[in-house]
C-alpha cells in the first residue's frame, strides 16, 4: 500500500516534491484547536531513528 501511494504521488508532483517514505499511524497528536502537531511528529521520528 505504501509503494502504491509513493508511486501515485511521484506521478502527480515535481521530482523535488516526491514522497520518500510513508508511515501510517492510528494516532496523530493534536492541539486544542484540532490542528495536527507536526512538531511532535518530527520529535517522535527523530527519537525512533536515533542510534
UniProtKB/TrEMBL annotation:
The keyword Ligase applies. InterPro entries: AMP-bd_C_sf (IPR045851). One of its GO terms (molecular function) is ligase activity. It comes from the Bacteria. Keywords: Ligase. This is Acyl-coenzyme A synthetase/AMP-(Fatty) acid ligase.
Amino acid at each position: 500500500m505504501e509503494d502504491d501511494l509513493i508511486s501515485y504521488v511521484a506521478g502527480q508532483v515535481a521530482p523535488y516534491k516526491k514522497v520518500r517514505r510513508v508511515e501510517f499511524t492510528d494516532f496523530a497528536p493534536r492541539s486544542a484547536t484540532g490542528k495536527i502537531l507536526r512538531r511532535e511528529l518530527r520529535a517522535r521520528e527523530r527519537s525512533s531513528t536515533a542510534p
